Amino acid sequence: MLDKTPPTYVPRMPRWKHQNDAIKLLAGREAFALFMEMRTGKTKTILDEFGQDEAAGKINDLLVIAPGGVFRTWKADAEKHLSDELRTHVRIGVWESGPSAMQVRALEGLLAYEGPRILLVNVEALSTDTGAAAVCERFLKGGSVTLVIDESTIIKNPTAKRTKRVLKLGALAAKRRILSGLPSPQSPLDVFAQFKFLGAPFTENFDSFQSRYAVVQKKPFGPGGRMIPVVVGYQNLDELQRRIQPYSFRVRLSDCYDLPEKMYIRREVTMTTEQEIAYDSMLEFAVAELENTERVTATIVLTQMLRLHQILCGVTMSDDGVEVDIAENRTDEMMDIIENTDGKVIIWAAYGANVRRIKAVIEKKYGAGSVACFWGGNADTREQEELMFKSTDGNACRFMVATAAAGGRGRTWDMADTIIYYSNTFSLEHRMQSEERAQAVGKKKSVGIFDLVTPGTVETKIIDTLRSKMELSNAITGDTWREWIV
Fold it and tell me: Is 401 left (phi over 0), alpha (psi -120 to 50) or beta?
């Protein structure tokens, strides 16, 4: 007799308890929200669900729409978490803006492929007429697809072009999932478009939704004093919570007792046009310098890498040796992490210009007194600022921005559960010591460690080496300099 039992999907890595609970809740639901804080395993949960559905013949494909710093990381996660069997025949494609002829051919190959497929798309591509929306539509029409919106607050604005396009694409999906740590980091109104994507009945009309859950008053605006509606408060939030509860699963870090001591996450950062020009020019100069050097040493290679790294971090040097800021996307990526994270945060920066920029941007968003600094530029006040950060008075001073040279040793900042490396130094000691500032004897909470990295540059090699607990100066030898620079 023919066995009709669907094949068992065996994930490559075991799930934590809350992930198993989430998988059970997802079963049989066409639309659902995973409100799982960062580092609790949203990505693995979705990949395991996809693997189970594919093995059972319910779903063929997975389409993930995510922010620029996140969407490519799904490829590495898929290779890590999918079952050995599925990994052998799944095909993964990544949407690239302004694709080359080779990338276009690869994308066409993915769309024509008859096996299981995964397509990863940057949500910013849906804000412009790049062709990404058309590719997503073709992908969705080519099979039975689960459509996932990662960091789903990216579609919180119901009037934005990308939100409208995502809602249209959602109608073509067999299953719809939204993922976020904080569903409404700014306003309860942020949940409207997210749950409209899921088809929740209470999201039929935004005006009705706003009048039910917001307090709106008309106030004068502009030179003519034209009266416009302004949200001044919120109401009926308990009711809203009850209405979204059937569509969602909530997990906080504090709920998870089985997480590892440290969790490493990469967030990719693209260069601005200004950075690309400066980086390419410096790369050409560095290669020329090294090729004309009779004896290349690790020190010489590190000097050239430093110049390239500074550009990636939004800093370049003028002819008279003065630091000059250049446009960058790194700070926006850092702010995205912060806005989706609870609790205190340590931000490590390699350069003084970075410290000043980070402090200014965070204080603009969260107010004066929200940031403490610990670096050479505030040697007279940094001890007092450290006391402010260590205060248990809520999150009044929520952020510590520091250089590893100044604050990387002998400090106890274990009240923070999140570390962001805005930029790394080249020192293994700096990296190892700075990671430990958020640890303490008896601490049970897992610490999330985020590295901001521009892929395909010297920064990838720097971070890989430090994470491997290798000293850069020892790893570099004179005859391998091209592997590090180019």
Answer: beta
Average of pLDDT values for 175-193? 86
Which helix (H) or strand (E) element contains residue 399? strand 399-402
Residues 198, 84 within the same domain: yes
- CATH code of the domain in which 21 resides: 3.40.50.10810
Question: Does 207 lie in the same domain as 341?
Answer: no
CATH number of domain containing 346: 3.40.50.300
Dihedral sign computed on CA atoms, order 326, 327, 328, 334: positive
CA distances from 206 to 194, 199, 213, 241, 418 (A): 12, 13, 10, 17, 35
Spell 214-224 as b/e; 16+ CB within 10 A means b. beeeeeeeeee
Tell me, what's the pLDDT at 220?
83
Q: Which comes out higher in pLDDT, residue 256 or 327? A: 327
Q: Structurally, how many domains does the chain consist of?
A: 2
Q: Which domain holds residue 170?
A: 17-255
Do 345 and 242 have their domain in common? Answer: no
395 vs 101: which has the higher pLDDT? 101
Q: Give the residue among 203, 252, 246, 221 at the shortest CA–CA distance from 37.
A: 252
Task: Judge if 214 and 356 occupy the same domain.
Answer: no
pLDDT of residue 78: 94
* Domain end call among 230, 255, 280: 255
Determine the Cα–Cα distance for residues 377 and 407; give it in Å rounded to an integer: 12
* pLDDT category of residue 462 using cuts at 50, 70 and 90: very high
Is residue 374 within a helix (H) or strand (E), and if so which, with residue range?
strand 371-374
Evaluate whether 231 touches 187 at the Cβ level (below 8 Å).
yes
Residues 209 and 349 in one domain: no
139-180 pLDDT, tens digit each: 999 999 999 999 898 999 999 999 999 999 999 999 999 999
Q: Are residues 250 and 349 in the same domain?
A: no
**276 assigned to some structural domain:** no
How confident is the prediction for the chain on average, in pLDDT?
Answer: 89
Number of neighbours of residue 17 by Cβ within 10 angstroms: 11
Single-letter residue type at 105: R
Report yes or no: 193 and 163 within 8 Å, Cβ to Cβ. Answer: yes
On whether both 74 and 186 belong to a single domain, the answer is yes
Q: What is the pTM assigned to this prediction?
A: 0.76
For the chain, the farthest-separated pair of C-alpha atoms sits apart, in whole angstroms, at 83
What are φ and ψ of residue 122, in 5° steps? Answer: -75, 125
In-domain check, residue 317: no
What is the distance between the alpha carbons of residues 303 and 132, in angstroms, rounded to a whole number? Answer: 40
Residue 37 has a pLDDT of: 83
